[in-house]
Amino acid sequence: MSSIKKKRVSKKTKSAWRKTDIKDVEEFLEDQRQEERVGSFAEKKDDELFMVDATPLKSKQIILTEKQRRKLNAKKPLRSLEALTNNSKVQDPIVKRNRVRQKKSGRIIEEEVRNPTKPRHFQANKDRERYYESLEKKLKKGEHLAKSAKDVWAEEDFRDKIPGLKDEKGWISKDLALYVSKNIGKAVIKVHDSIRHRTTKAKKFEAPHGGMSYNPSLEDHQALLAAVADKEEKIIKEENHLKRVTTQMFSKVTPEERDKRLMEEMRSGLGEEDDGNEKDDATPDGVYKSINPPVENKKKSKQSRRKELQQKELQKKQAEKKALKKQTADLNRIKSIKNEVIAEEEQLNDLKKHRKKVELKKKFETKRLGRLKYAEPDTDINMPEDIAGNLRNVKPESSLLVDRFKNFQKRNILPVSVATGKQKSKKVKRFPRSSHKDPGVSFQMLREQRKVKS
Amino acid sequence: MRRLKKYQTGEAAQYITRRAALRKLQLSLNDFRRLCIIKGVYPREPKHRRRAQKGSSDIKILYHAKDIRFLLHEPIVWTLRDYKIFAKKTGRDRAIKDFRNLKRRLALFPELRIDHIVKERYPTFIDAIKDLDDCLTLLFLFSTFPSLRLIPREQSALCRRLTLEFLHYIISSKSIRKVFISIKGFYFQADIKGQMVTWIMPHHYPFKPHSKAEVDFKVMSIFVEFYTIMLGFVNYRLYHSAGYTYPPEIHYEKQADLEDNYKDELSYVSDRIAALNSDLDSKTNEPEEEIEDIDLDLIEQGQNSNREVPREPLVILIRSFGGKVSWDSTVFTGATYAETDESITHQIVDRPILSDKYISRDYIQPQWVFDCVNQRTLIPTNKYFIGATLPPHLSPFVDSKRESYIPPEESGTGNESSYNKDGSKSDENILDAQPEEIRTLDDQQLQVAYMEEKLEIEGDGYVQSEDEINPENDEVAPKELQKRDQEKLSMSVKVGKVHKENKRLNRKNELDEHRLQARMVKPRHRNLFRKLIREKQDKEKEKWLLKKKRRIIDGQNKDN
């Protein structure tokens, strides 16, 4: 039972009927009329009533990749320039003020080339022809050689090259001419002499020894062989000497022997076998006496310090006395002192001479230009078996290129260097930036895909 | 005045390390090396390394600071820097596939111009000739190389061309003086404008690749680059001085299909030799003058070389002394006449046996030509026939008048040459009266003879000069004429007396002279003099010892 009692409205009058809601009745009646007209739903077939909707439910969600999105964004006007745009709906009262020029009508170059209309087009075409001709000439090689044939040592004055410097009356001095040419840019540069100084006495071509002939005489060949044998002997002798003073100083033992000796040495203090002998050597008293006792910091007393000072002074006085005595004694010894001085001077002179000699000898030797020292190449010589009497079978010993290279090193032109191997080029790891990668998958895209699905 | 710090003056300021030089010049190491080699700036060793290297004791490569400052003024430094820019620009064009611009840029490749550097390094022509030794050897060597990784193809072609031109000049100027065949190659010495130029031509062997550890190819290639330009200029000057045009037109024309020519080494070589065999075109058609010094091959002699003989040096030698050469036309190109030609006088063979022989020719081994050149005469060919053991080929670079031991082979064969030399000398130098120290019988007689002649001439000259001073010519003249007539009458050829040499007296005179010389030496030179004498005595002793050994060996051989 509802507490609120609905007040019954009478439906006697028209106004009352106007207040009530008769929609449902009207609807029902309409439906009835419609059914009578058309027919009821139950009678109709499915096809007449329904249609399969082929259109997609929503428009296909366009999932843009990062790249595409960025490209689209790039086409939009810049955010920073937004303040400059006019967003108001009020039109500008002066219509002709803001005239936005549309895209410039560019010049089409191909048209100009093919159909020249203006004089500057013709000029451009002509210039281009000339340029291509000169380019072709430059591309052709071989002309350089014939052109460069000239006499370099012909006497030339630098003043001829600069117009206006040569004066018949001689008013333009040489200094002035040099100054002017330097400021123009065609400076005349003096070459200092030290660039041509010889630092070596080595000759460009050592006169070939007779033994190096392809058909040498007996003496020459023997002499050369003897020289080579001498050198080899020297090398062997030095090697032996070095071996003697280094490796032969150390005794060589087998590993077992070495281990045995080690054990013996380490075991030497522990007397396990000879107990009787060991005991006698131990100290008779049981007091522990160490060989290196700890040191005590005893301070010196005043007396001892005083005594020490006195001793020092005494010593000083004695030294002075001794020196004085020595001076008087030396006066008697003047002659021998003089001899001593002369001997020292001679020694110094000898040393000076020796040093000068060494310097002079070193002046024209092969210098040490780089880290490595110059090593003389071996003399090439045909062994007696190899000597061919005829030109067909000459056995070549060393290559001429190596010989010339070593000769350059000997004459202080090239420093001795070791060949650097192939430099390993560091493999640079190349990778594309994540922004420039092929369309892969990003979180954004995954999120949107999820949205589409759901 | 700012306080002077350590290493600001002295040796430390004179030397500069290589790294500091690179930074100063703003070049890479390869470019710097190239620049230094082309300009002739070389590293130096200081007297005191620690001072020069500002206290560090490792061994760095040092240059004179003055040299590096000089290099700063060089215009090719800009060209070397342009290379880097060029590389960058063309690399970019190639990467963005702009081939039109790439082609244009490649045409504007910055080329090194080295002409002014040649003039700077060799201010006079003679300086350049003094440095020709190295240049020629390297260029001959590089002309035999195939194209390697670090050596451009054009370089070896250029070397070939230049060396060929130089050889043509040598042939036409007949300036070869000495030859020597050694195991390294052929040594040549020629006399160009008064300077002796020596070079080595390598034997013709297939190219052996060198390891990088032995030789630095790039560096040698840079040397060759400079030397090619230098030799080009030298050739120009030599040709013009001899009256030919440069670049020369050599009559021999290359065959039609050039590809075959460049296929293998043999055809290269044969082309070269064929070119050598033809004459140069002269500017003016003057008849060539005969040079009297060399008394060698007559011009009509033709010589024919067989197949295994090394042709190039032979062609050079034979043609430079006026002979004509040819070879089998089926094997090599450029033969001027056939093997069956009748006018051939000598045929050079290297094989031990030859089947068919012509009577009119001498069949000899190639060493004959070389020995002839060294001795400057046509030596008899009997020792050089096919199959005979050749006499040893001696080195002509050794002084023939040296004081050390001269083996009998050399002195035996060399006698004629020394005789010739003396004879020619005495003919030419009439007014030069420098008596030689080593006197032989012949020499002495000649000396006496021309001393007399000299006196006569001098006497005449003296008389003539007196004539000019004395105004009274007429009076004096008939007197002089009379004198001369008398002399003429007394000048008849008489039978000469054999001049007997008193050996003992001569020896005594010599000793006395030496003693006087020794006494005249100043006290401060005495040590040096004593040293010299001792050295001389040692040499004599060695010589005597070797002679004795030889005597003993010969004696033993005779017994056996």
From TrEMBL, chain A:
Predominant subcellular localization, coarse grouping: nucleus
Highest rank taxon of the organism: Eukaryota
A GO cellular component annotation in the UniProt record: nucleolus
Ranges of biased composition (kind: Basic and acidic residues): 306-322
Region (Disordered): 268-328, 420-454
Compositionally biased intervals (Basic residues): 423-434
Subcellular location: Nucleus, Nucleolus; Nucleus, Nucleoplasm
Gene Ontology terms: biological process: ribosomal large subunit assembly; rRNA processing
Presence of keyword Nucleus: yes
Sorted UniProt keywords: Nucleus, Ribosome biogenesis
A GO MF label: 5S rRNA binding
Family stated for the protein in its record: Belongs to the NOP53 family.
Protein function: May play a role in ribosome biogenesis.
Record-linked PANTHER family: GLIOMA SUPPRESSOR CANDIDATE REGION GENE 2 (PTHR14211), RIBOSOME BIOGENESIS PROTEIN NOP53 (PTHR14211:SF7)
Protein name from the UniProt record: Ribosome biogenesis protein NOP53
Gene name of this polypeptide: GSCR2
UniProtKB/TrEMBL annotation, chain B:
Compartments where found: Nucleus, Nucleolus; Nucleus, Nucleoplasm
Feature: compositional bias, Polar residues: 412-421
Record field: transmembrane: none
GO biological process: maturation of 5.8S rRNA from tricistronic rRNA transcript (SSU-rRNA, 5.8S rRNA, LSU-rRNA); maturation of LSU-rRNA from tricistronic rRNA transcript (SSU-rRNA, 5.8S rRNA, LSU-rRNA)
RNA-binding recorded as keyword: no
Residues of the BRCT domain: 286-386
GO CC annotation terms, alphabetical: nucleoplasm; PeBoW complex; preribosome, large subunit precursor
PROSITE patterns: BRCT (PS50172)
Keyword line: Nucleus, Phosphoprotein, Ribosome biogenesis, rRNA processing
MF GO annotations: ribonucleoprotein complex binding; RNA binding
Region (Disordered): 399-428
Location (main, coarse): nucleus
Family: Belongs to the pescadillo family.
PANTHER family named among the record's database cross-references: PESCADILLO - RELATED, PESCADILLO HOMOLOG
Record function comment: Required for maturation of ribosomal RNAs and formation of the large ribosomal subunit.
Protein name (database record): Pescadillo homolog
